[in-house]
Write a structure and sequence with these properties.
DUF2851; 6-stranded mixed β-sheet; elongated; 2 domains; alpha/beta; 18 helices
């Protein structure tokens, strides 16, 4: 038995509350369960009860055993002075207030539906399962699952918004600068994302604004700040970029080589940091209105319009690195890579900006549903449990949040799927 199950029973009234009595035999009339507290202090605030003939308003504390009150030191914590009911699974000791009166106790195990208890135990005790509900996941109603995945997708966006808010605080609400950081990190993928973000954070965005009309200047900044021009040798194009970077670094008082080297190891050539930074330079040199364009994109096509029609520098059409020349290729952003940029940079900043402006963000669901789902172990896992579960980027982002924040943490009782499986009739 876990305490979160008792929280679930109390919060959703999943016990015979009409029959409930204290351990002293007084009838309990449940008027309001109270607000579930996720932080320190009593578990439910502002509950309203009638115990016997007395009306009570205050807090409710929940434990597996009554004696846990003393184990946790609540008897000396003023935060628990206003507890009006102690809800426990096992009543093993009386608990007293400071005035020596007994805090009423509800032994909730007496009033629990035994069938639901078995379902909970069956769900939570599946050892070795990928997710606890994997055998029952396909039985969940499709409409209910879709609603829950929308909710979880929104939670994931809210988590990303916290990162964006932190960046906005650091950069004086410069939304264009924050978009630059998000795009930079996304261009680097998992391998070079942090190095690219570090680069972006060391280039004041006012510098980008001043040089963005010159694609080579942008390349010089990006390659120079990531240390890729330090030992360029006698490559003419590299030497030209190094010369430009030294001038720009002196002019804008930049500190080159931010301390994080870009990596090539185990990357396909199209994902080499040289190519991705050259593409980033192409995007910013082409669109002076990049932020306004992407922030207002309502469809995948509108997002693509600002990303796909870029013209990489001639040098990079025949090179993947500074040293070796190859067959000419345009090296545009692929649709699958643009989808990643939309998922990881554009949609999160659109959501954050809508919240900041107090605007409706429901149109984001349309955009993200047009974007193809990511192919990873989590999306494959859920598709294996339920055919065509992950149809778009909305679902692929949602199941990442679901797996990491609910399934992996055994938070079945905070998941709509887990609650449904426990409470549904056999």
């Amino acid at each position: 038995m876990k305490e979160d199950y008792l929280h679930y029973l109390w919060k959703y009234k999943k016990f015979a509350f009409a029959e409930a009595k204290t351990t002293a035999g007084e009838e309990i009339t449940l008027v309001k369960t109270g607000e579930h507290n996720q932080h320190s202090g009593p578990d439910f605030f502002a509950a309203q009860l009638k115990i016997g003939d007395q009306n009570w308003a205050g807090n409710v504390e929940i434990h597996l055993k009554s004696s846990d009150w003393y184990v946790h030191g609540h008897e000396s914590d003023p935060a628990y002075d206003n507890v009006i009911l102690h809800v426990v699974w096992e009543h093993d000791v009386e608990v007293f207030r400071k005035d020596n009166t007994v805090i009423p106790t509800l032994n909730i195990s007496t009033y629990v539906n035994k069938d639901e208890l078995k379902k909970y135990q069956h769900l939570i005790q599946r050892k070795g399962a990928w997710i606890n509900c994997e055998k029952d996941f396909s039985s969940i109603d499709g409409f209910e699952l879709a609603l829950w995945l929308e909710r979880v997708f929104t939670e994931r966006l809210q988590d990303k918004t916290k990162v964006i808010d932190t960046l906005l605080d650091q950069y004086n609400n410069d939304w264009e600068a924050v978009l630059f950081m998000l795009l930079s990190k996304s261009m680097g993928l998992n391998v070079n994302g942090e190095a690219f973000l570090n680069m972006a954070q060391h280039i004041p965005f006012n510098v980008i604004r001043r040089v963005r009309t010159d694609q080579q200047d942008l390349e010089a900044l990006f390659f120079g700040m990531t240390g890729m021009l330090d030992e360029i040798g006698d490559v003419p194009y590299g030497a030209e970029l190094k010369k430009r970077f030294e001038y720009l670094a002196h002019k804008f008082q930049l500190k080159p080589n931010c301390g994080m080297e870009a990596k090539f190891f185990r990357l396909r050539p199209d994902n080499f940091p040289t190519i991705r930074l050259a593409q980033l330079a192409a995007v910013y040199s082409k669109h002076a209105d990049l932020f306004s364009g992407l922030i207002s994109a309502k469809t995948k096509k509108e997002g693509y319009d600002y990303l796909e029609e870029i013209d990489i520098s001639p040098f990079w059409k025949t090179h993947y690195t500074f040293s070796k020349e190859g067959t000419p290729r345009k090296k545009k952003l692929t649709k699958s890579f643009m989808d990643l940029l939309l998922i990881n940079a554009v949609v999160p900043i659109q959501f954050s900006y809508a919240v900041y402006k107090g605007r409706d963000h429901s149109e984001l669901f349309r955009l993200v549903r047009e974007v193809a789902p990511e192919k990873n172990s989590i999306s494959k896992g859920f598709n294996a449990l339920r055919e065509n579960c992950v149809k778009s980027a909305l679902e692929s982002q949602a199941v990442i949040q679901l797996k990491r924040e609910y399934c992996d943490k055994n938070r079945c009782l905070r998941c709509a799927i887990g609650i449904k499986l426990i409470s549904q009739e056999s």
